[in-house]
Amino acid sequence: MAVDTEFDDWWSDVDLEEEEDPLNDLVSCPQCGAEIYEDAPKCPFCGDYVVQTSSGWSGRPSWWILLGLLGALATVLALIMGL
Predict the structure, then answer these.
(1) Cα–Cα distances in angstroms (integers) from residue 31 to residues 43, 51, 52, in the given order
(2) Which end of the chain has fewer CB atoms surrounding its CB within 10 Å, N or C?
(3) What's the CA gap between 80 and 76, in Å, rounded?
(4) How far apart are CA 28 and CA 34, in angstroms?
């Protein structure tokens, strides 16, 4: 009986990782704080839409934004005055 080594080679390359459990992908709703799926477009508890923001300014206090803008302005003024 001939052994199919091509199949054995293919099978050894197959990655047998476990699939991720979708229940582990939970986040808190920004409005009500309930645990919801990360990909949910709308919270099933409060009904508000979940908007994913990728802005670097989101969640920052207003003084942090003001400090950043003043630092940028000071840099521009220093470059202008130095020329």
Answers:
(1) 9, 11, 13
(2) N
(3) 6
(4) 5
